[in-house]
Amino acid sequence: MFKNILVPTDGSALSCKAVKKAAVFAKKMGAKITGFHVAPVYRFNIYADYVPPNFESPQAYSVRIKKVAQRHLDVIKKAAAEAGVTCSCYYTTSDFPADAIVKAAKKYKCDVIFMASHGRTGLSRLLLGSETTKVLTHTKIPVLVYR
């Protein structure tokens, strides 16, 4: 039924649980996994003559983001290997993770997105919504939500 499953991760505990379930699901479907991580875009925080003590150059930020992404994506690679499933992983930067996930599904020709139901609660959920809800709203392919 499904041949290529996009598995986005933010590295949270629930996301890691969803990754393991996605690998089992992929094995049952005879599908491969495409792991995906979205990191925040670099922010240049220098104000006039003031350079904050925690300033990080764009190059240092890029190196740090790559390490963090690899750590999160390694969880997907490990789960896929344990399940005997083919896996490829990618990451990008974006201020809009849900949009990046939907674009990745198209770019990597995924036919389903398998993601955790992590997100906000209370007022922040009303104002911002969860990334899962945004993905559900904006994609045309099926989304399996792990709770």
Question: What this model shows, in words?
Answer:
With 147 residues, the protein is an alpha/beta fold. It has one domain (4-146): HUPs (Rossmann fold, 3-Layer(aba) Sandwich). It has five helices and five strands, in the order βαβαβαβααβ. It has a five-stranded parallel sheet with strand order 3-2-1-4-5, with helices on both faces. Helix 2 links the parallel strand 2 and strand 3 (87-93). The model has no long low-confidence stretch (mean pLDDT 91).
The CATH architecture is 3-Layer(aba) Sandwich
Q: How many β-strands, per DSSP?
A: 5
Give the termini separation. 22 Å
The global form is: elongated
Helical fraction: 40-55%
Low confidence ranges:
none
CATH superfamily: HUPs
| Element-level helix/strand string | EHEHEHEHHE
Main β sheet profile? 5 strands, parallel
Please write the CATH class name. Alpha Beta
Number of domains: 1
Strand content: 15-25%
Quickly describe the structure.
This protein has 147 residues and is of the alpha/beta class. It has helices at residues 13-29, 58-83, 97-107, 122-128, 131-138, and strands at 4-9, 32-39, 87-93, 112-116, 143-146. The radius of gyration is 17 Å and the shape is elongated.
SSE topology:
Elements: E1 4-9, H1 13-29, E2 32-39, H2 58-83, E3 87-93, H3 97-107, E4 112-116, H4 122-128, H5 131-138, E5 143-146
Parallel strand pairs: 1-2, 1-4, 2-3, 4-5
